[in-house]
Amino acid sequence: MSAVLLTLSDKDIFPNTPDTTGTDWKDRPTGKVVLFNDKNEIVLVSNKITNLFLLPGGGIEEGEDIVEGTKRECREETGHEIEIIHELGVTEDYRVRDSRHCISYCFAAKALSQGPIALTKDESDIGFFMQWFSLEDAAKLLASQEEKVRRGEVEFYNTCFNIVRDSFFIRRAQKLLA
Question: Which CATH number does the domain 4-177 belong to among 2.40.440.10, 2.20.25.110, 3.90.550.10, 3.90.79.10?
Answer without folding.
Answer: 3.90.79.10
